[in-house]
Structures are given as C-alpha cells and as structure tokens.
Design brief:
Tet_transcr_reg_TetR-rel_C_sf (chains A, B); mainly alpha; about 0% strand; transcription regulation (chains A, B); Tetracycline Repressor, domain 2; DNA-binding (chains A, B); homodimer; DNA-binding
DNA sequence: GGCTGGCTATGTCAAGCGTCATATTCTACA
DNA sequence: TGTAGAATATGACGCTTGACATAGCCAGCC
C-alpha cells in the first residue's frame, strides 16, 4: 500500500518535530528514521518539506483532540483536563523527556527553507501558513475544553478564559518538564488547575 | 571597547533566538543583524555557537528576572505577576508578535551542530548543558515568584505549585499569542491567574 | 505478452552552515 | 615612539540541507 509509506513519513515527521523542533528535522532524517524511501518524498509531498510539516502538524493535533473530545464528552471537563495532562505525561515519560509538543515547536520556531531564492522575502507566507495551522490546532483544543465547561454551566467568557489557561499552562509545563527532565511541574500544575476548574464548576 | 562588540553579539543572538529559535539562528546572521565583525566570533566565543547560545540564554534570563525580582519585592506577588505578563505583552506587541521567549525555544528545540564529526553521538552533552541552563532560568523565575508568595503567607508546597503555574502558563500563552497574532490569550490568562493568586493570598 | 502509471532508488546541484587559518588594523602601555 | 597583543577582516574547508532529474521496479489491465 502506498499511503502506508506516506502515513509513516507523516508520523515520523511529527515525532521528530516534537523532539527536535521544525528546523532540526530534516527530510533525510525522517526517511532514515522511518525506513521509508527517500525518493518517494517528491511523490507524496509535491510541495516538499512545507507540506510534510503541515501534514505532521494536523496529525499531531488530531492525536490529541481525539481522546480529549471523547473524554470531555463522556466524563466532563475535569476528567478531560486529567486526561489531557496524563497524555502529555505519558509522552514525556515514554521518551525520557525527549519529546514535547510539535505544535508548540511550530509556534516557537520560525521555519526557514534553505532552497528558496533571490526574492526579497524568504518565505513569509509559508511561515504564516504554519502559524495559522498551529493556531487552529490550539483553538481546536481550546474549543473542546470550552464546550465541556459550557455544558457544565460555566459562563461563556469565563469558559473561554479557563480553556485558554488550561491549554496554555499545559503546553508551557510540558516544555518546562523537558528542560527539568522531571514530571513534577506537570503534577503541580495539574493540581492547581483541578482546583480552579472544580471551583468554577461549583459556582 | 571590545566587550561592546561582544555584548551586541549576545543581545542580537538572544533577539534572533526569541524570533526564530535556536537552529534557525546562524552566527552569520547574528553578525549581519548586529553590524558586528564576523571575525570576532572566534575571539569572543572560543567555544563557538554553543557558547554564544549559552550567553544569550543567561542574558535573556536576567532581562526578565531583574524587573521581576524588583517588583515582587517592592510591590508583592500580584504586582509581580502583572509585570511579568505586561513584560511579555510588550515584547509581543513591539515586535508584532514575532518575538517570543528564547528560553522556551531552547526547551522546545534540540540544538544540533553541523560541524561535529564521526563520534557515534552528535552532541548530547552540549544539548544537556543548554537544557540545564534553561531549567535553571525557569527555576530562577519560579523561585522569585515562590519567595513573594511565601512572604505573603502562602504555605510552601502551595507556593511552589502556584509559582510553577504562573511561569508555565505565561510561557505557554506567549507562544499561543505568537501563533494567533493576538494578545487576547495573555489577557485571559492574566485575569484567571490574578484570581487564583489573590484567592490564595486571602486565605 | 506488453504497456502504463504509481512508486522507488540514486545522484547532482547550489546554497548555507560552523569552524579554522591567515592577514590586517587598532590600541594601550613602556 | 615603538611594539606587543587584542580585535577585526576575509577566505577556504568540509559538511548537510532541500530540491530536482533520471532511471529502475512492479503491480494491474488491454
């Protein structure tokens, strides 16, 4: 099957991006890492690395939003928060704190493509597109948490702020855990976030 | 003065790192961007790019911890939180949401040096050192907030958790603001964090 | 069988990278 | 004033990168 190769490339790119970031992830390393043929890149990704990154991003986004959506719908906002954090904790510990969030990597870095030429600007449009994609994924996660809070009676504005707090603090904490090679910050933040959410729900 | 050139290189590297990330920041671009002589790199940074990054990191760390420490000491934890967030908001808006936090960039990326050879491992020790540095800076900011909370009567364990929440959520929010090209998440998160802190202080 | 079209394999290319070596200029002190 | 040492300028080297071109493979269908 052909799309098997393509899927492996996308997953491998997402994995490498979450470990090394966007610019440190080369297409050659993706194929090395996944055992996929180098020559197939041009076939599956005619727009090159930019396209690979885009696909890897939405892949990574769905990997999170899937479980998150399911759990908030079946067991509520607090359970969703716990699952969200547990999911990142799992990623961190499974990889010995080497992998983080590839969406955050895109939001923090600036993708620069070497093989672009002579126009005045490097590739501002491409970078904007990646940022739009990352923004959309963050917004997606936030919307899931927002909906769960609304369903449990939290006022719209408050729900928006709380959802932003949950997503942002978790993302930041994952990066800090990577630096500290410890999951302790995640536990600390989870504890405080649970307090905040349950107190907002009790009102 | 010689150290003037050196200081400009460090500041320029910190700025570029906060915009593009570690790997997308080349030494050639640092000297281009700062108008400093390329040949001086070897003089001021005998250990090369690794050393430049390290110096830029502690430079960026101090730029934040200075004001943060001063404000928490003179006006308390909540004022410190407001200043911390206002500081990042200023950076975001001044650069049209192009610059973020260079410490976060180090925590999210993996620095890979091209010009290393033939040993089995690339440069694991160098990367670990950068992570240690970033971890130390995060811990520094956290300690300042922790101390302020303690001074205002918050129990040690709680103060540690709250400090972690403040730093992590702010870092995450800054990255999200970059992706969204909007400071709205920062406002949302600031509002919720103020609620949390003041309620913890009221106890 | 033969052919066609989706894949794969491999090599080349220009450009950028960090580092090093060398040459030149500047500067401060004897 | 003379001179040593710091600072700067410049070019070369080996390497990797993304992109592209060419050629080989191997199904499925006439």
């Amino acid at each position: 099957m052909s799309s098997d190769t393509r899927a492996k490339m996308v997953a491998g790119a997402a994995d490498l991006m979450s470990r090394r970031g966007v610019n440190a992830t080369s297409m050659r390393e993706v194929v090395r890492h996944t055992g996929t043929p180098r020559g197939s890149i041009g076939h599956h990704f005619p727009r090159g690395k930019q396209q690979l990154i885009e696909d890897a991003l939405v892949f990574a986004g769905k990997q999170v939003s899937g479980p998150l959506q399911h759990l908030t719908e079946t067991r509520g906002a607090v359970a969703g928060l716990r699952a969200f954090i547990a999911l990142w904790r799992g990623t961190l510990e499974r990889t010995e704190f080497q992998a983080g969030c590839s969406v955050l990597a895109v939001a923090v870095e600036q993708y620069v493509n070497d093989a672009t030429e002579k126009d005045s600007e490097p590739d501002e449009a491409a970078q904007q597109h990646l940022l739009d994609l990352a923004d959309g994924i963050f917004a997606d996660w936030q919307r899931i948490m927002f909906t769960a809070l609304r369903r449990e009676g939290v006022a719209p504005a408050r729900a928006r702020r709380l959802a932003a707090l949950v997503i942002a603090s978790t993302e930041g904490t994952v990066a800090m855990c990577r630096a500290a090679r410890s999951a302790q910050p995640l536990d600390d933040v989870r504890q405080e976030l649970e307090l905040v959410l349950s107190s907002a729900l009790a009102k």
